[in-house]
Amino acid sequence: MTEDFDPEFDPDERAEIAAQIPVISAAWRFIIPALQDHDLAAAWPAVDPTLRLCWAQEWLDLNRSDAVGDGYDLDQVAVALTDDAPNHPLWRHFSRVPAAGPAGHRRF
User: Which of 17, 48, 97, 101 is deepest in the core (most CB within 10 A)?
Assistant: First the structure.
C-alpha cells in the first residue's frame, strides 16, 4: 500500500527511486525551458542529437515548399538546426512555430 511506503526502511525501494533521478533530471532540463519558459534554444542542448535531427527534418518536411522556394538545401538546414546553439536563419521559425514534435505530439 502506498500509505505504508517509506523508502528509508527499504534499501531496494530507495535504490529503485535513486536510479530514476538521472532520467527525471534530464526531463526537467528540457521541460522547464521549453514548455514553461517557451525557450526552445535554452532547452535544445538537453535534447539528444539524433532526436534533434529527426525533429528538424520533420519540421522541414512540413515546410518543404517554403524552404526550397527560398533556396535552402534541406539536408544542410537540418544539420545546422541540430547544433547546441543554432544560429541558422530558419532557427527562429523552427523554435517559435508550434509543430508536430517527435511521434506526432504537438509541442508548445
Answer: 101
Which amino acid is residue 54, in one-letter code? Answer: C
Contact 92, 44 (CB under 8 A): no
Number of domain units in the chain: 1
Which residue range forms the structural domain that includes residue 75? Answer: 2-104
> What value, to the nearest 5°, has the Cα angle with vertex 92 and ends 80 and 48?
50
Q: How far is CA 5 from the centre of its chain?
A: 34
User: Hey, which bits of the chain come out as E strands?
Assistant: none
Look at the block and give the residue holding cell 508536430: 100
Q: Using one digit for the tens of pLDDT, what is the confidence trace for 2-18?
A: 566 666 778 888 888 88
Provide CB contacts within 8 A for 26, sequence distance 6+. 46
Task: Dump pLDDT digits (tens) for 60-88.
Answer: 999 999 999 999 999 999 999 999 999 99
